[in-house]
Amino acid sequence: MTTAPGELPLLGHSLALLRRDRIGYLTSLQRLGDIVEVKIGTRPYLVLNSADLVRTVMVEQAKSFAPGRIFNKARPYVGDGLFTAEGTEHNRQRRMVQPAFHRAEVARYVARVSEVTRKQVAEWTPGDTVEMGRQMHILTSEIIGQTMFRAPEACEVVRVARDQLPALLQGLGMRTLLPDLFTRIPTPVNRRFDEACDSLRNSSQRLVESYRKNHSDLGDFISMLMAARDGRTDTAFTDAEIRDQVMTLLIAGIETPATTLTWALYEIAHRPELQDRIVAEATDPADVNSLQFTDAVVQEALRLHHPLWMLMRRAVEPVTIGGVSITPGTEVIYSPAALHRDPTIFADPLRFQPERWLDATPEMQRALIPFGVGNRQCIGDHFAWSMMKICIATIAAERRLTLPAGFTPKTIISSIVHLADLPMVMHRRERNS
Fold it and tell me: How far apart are CA 76 and CA 80, in angstroms?
């Protein structure tokens, strides 16, 4: 094991991890070995530069690890839902939430996605320039609102989530990498973060209370959670636990798909032939299984532009990973975004090339971990994947997209990596084109 160069007194490698090209920095560590030590402040962390080692931590040796610093930092603000819960409590919650994402339920959700997308696309007047990043956040929030909730009161919490997520994610990213003292300084970032968390928590709480008071069983996400009981512990969710699950759903269900869709649309705008191939197979955009090339576009967007640039796990018992002995309390870091750019696995890794997934090798498939692996794999991965495919197919079928002349993309990195803005010119899609 080697230590990354460039360590600064007291700061360690924190400045490198806070710079604009954070993914580039983490990718550069790959040439130093499968496990590289960095320091955040004065505390050491181990960066895993191998997808196989990540699978070891998340699957084979999962019991030796708990969620790390990022999750601990997030828990007081976003609650103790599936994203932050640990150990047996996480397993209990997963068993109880899982029915809401069974295949039959996902099929019901998916049936609404194309309809919601077509309605929004209809508002994009041909010839207009649309800020696509904002539009994708509106779209994914509408999809979550109309598939997961049936009570009209849910409109409020969906709106709050859509509007407050940027401030929440920016603040969470800063709090993960900076000393705890930073959280007590009333900076604009901290104030916006606190306000965003309070708004999302309070609106989620009001929604749960409204369900208890006004709705017996609507057959939707919250109704399922209210009726759920764990077969092993014979416990039910408290209202506070349901609130935390709602917050988790909104954060994960809106932000990650919206960011991925924005990147995907940016990439296909560069290459009209990609749009043509998507349109050619999208005779029925709601038929998820027919969208094979669109599926490759989503895979490539999640590979090249994965929103999560850093995740962590903390060892809870002595364990050996990749020949390195790890003591309890040691934090390990892995970056899906950097792992997906490993040139030893992905040829020409910085090129957007959906075609690579049409004949992907087992090594490529194994190295792609867009929704995590193991018992902490995203519980809504199948729905999210289907949603993104249908959205892309529907948009491409209804509008031809181009970028303004001279447009240069700029990225913003908080807890995730996203485009600062994406102006796109709308053109009417001729049915015979």
Answer: 8
Bridge partners, 157 (sequence order) = none
pLDDT digits (tens, 9 = 90+) for 142-153: 999 999 999 999
Residue 258 is which amino acid? A
Spatial separation of the C-alpha atoms in residues 140 and 261, rounded to whole Å: 9
What is the rounded distance in angstroms from the CA atom of residue 329 to the CA atom of residue 66?
Answer: 10
Whole-number Cα distances in Å, 360 to 128, 131, 140? 38, 33, 29
Q: Is there a contact between 136 and 421 (Cβ–Cβ < 8 Å)? A: no
pTM here is 0.93
* Residue 87, token pair as written in the block: 């150990």
Extract the tokens encoding 55. 């699978």
Q: What tokens does 14 get? A: 């924190």
Distance CA 244, CA 232 (A): 21
Measured CA to CA, the distance from residue 158 to residue 165 in angstroms comes to 11
Give the Cα-Cα-Cα angle 342, 36, 338 (nearest 5 degrees): 25
* Minimum mean pLDDT range among 2-16, 66-80, 383-397: 66-80
Which residue is it, tokens 């779209």?
139
Neighbour-count burial of 188, counting CB atoms closer than 10 A to its CB (0-12 exposed, 13-18 middle, 19+ buried): exposed
Q: How far apart are CA 204 and CA 273, in angstroms?
A: 43
Residue 71 CA to residue 78 CA, distance in Å, equals 10
| 80, 212 Cβ separation under 8 angstroms | no
Q: Which of 256, 223, 248, 222 is nearest to 82 (CA)?
A: 248
Render pLDDT for 70-106 as a digit per residue (tens, 0 to 9): 888 788 888 899 988 988 999 999 999 999 999 899 9
Rounded-to-integer distance, Cα 227 and Cα 372, Å: 28
Residue 331 has phi, psi (to 5 degrees) of -100, 135
**DSSP annotation string for 368-410:** --TT--GGGS-TTHHHHHHHHHHHHHHHHHHEEEEPPTT----
| Phi then psi dihedrals of residue 162, to 5 deg | -60, -45
Amino acid residing at 282: A
CA distance 125 to 143: 21
* CA atoms of 318 and 313, how far apart (whole Å): 14
Residue 311 carries which DSSP code? E
In whole angstroms, how far apart are CA 264 and each of 167, 272, 353, 392, 418? 23, 13, 11, 8, 11
